[in-house]
Amino acid sequence: MTQKIYPVILSGGFGSRLWPVSREKLPKQFISTTEKQTFFNSTVDRFKSNNFNNITVIGNFEHRFLIYDAIAKTKINPEAILLEPVSKNTSAAITISALHIHQKDPDAIILVVPSDHLIESKSKFNDHIKKVSQNFHKDFIYVF
Questions:
Q1: Measured between alpha carbons, how far is 112 from 130 in angstroms, rounded to an integer?
Q2: Is the omega angle on the peptide bond into residue 20 within 30 degrees of 0, that is, cis?
Q3: C-beta neighbour count of 130 within 10 angstroms
Q4: What is the DSSP secondary structure assignment for residue 120, as one 8-state letter?
Q5: Is the pLDDT of residue 19 over 60?
Q6: What is the chain's Cα-based Rg?
Q7: 29 SS3 class
Q8: Pairwise CA distance, residues 134 & 127, whole Å
Q9: Cβ 86 vs Cβ 96: under 8 Å
Q10: What is the distance, to the nearest Å, from the Cα of residue 128 to the centroid of all Cα atoms in its chain?
Q11: Is the CB of residue 6 less than 8 Å from the CB of residue 56?
Q12: Where are the alpha helices (H) located in 5-135, listed in sequence order?
């Protein structure tokens, strides 16, 4: 792979699925996992690799301090943190993120991921992304 991928981390949601552990003020992505870090931070860590550009995070304005604090703990510099004033669901978040990245790099390869998945092997994840991205062709959308 010669072109780096732009990771977009979706950090929306209101914590309703895992209530009472997850709740509106502290949704699932900011809950500590068995690795003693949050789902969000585990997601950010997956993209600390030469295969990727800096992350873009899109999340709810209400969670801005949680997002900023979590990113500060990772000691990375994000490409952007985009905050939605009102939740409009996943497709709107992806569209805003893609338009933002497209302004900078019209030929960008964008990988959109949720911030609350548990992926146990960072290296297997990154190896697989690297492998499949070698087959990407311009003007296509791939669902991973």
A1: 15
A2: yes
A3: 15
A4: S
A5: no
A6: 15
A7: helix
A8: 11
A9: no
A10: 17
A11: yes
A12: 39-46, 64-74, 89-104, 122-133
Residue given tokens 């780096």 in the structure block: 4
Spatial contact of 40 and 118, defined as CB atoms under 8 Å apart:
no
Tell whether pTM > 0.85: yes
Output the six-digit token pair for 44.
Answer: 């950010």
- Contact at 8 Å (CB) between 54 and 81? no
- Alpha-carbon distance of 28 to 17, in angstroms, equals 8
The helix or strand, by DSSP H or E, that contains position 34, with its residue range, turns out to be none
Find, among 12, 94, 19, 95, the residue nearest to 61 by Cα: 12
pLDDT tens digits for range 83-105: 998 878 899 999 999 999 999 99
| 3-class secondary-structure state, position 21 | coil
- Tell me how far the alpha carbon of residue 130 is from its chain's centroid: 17
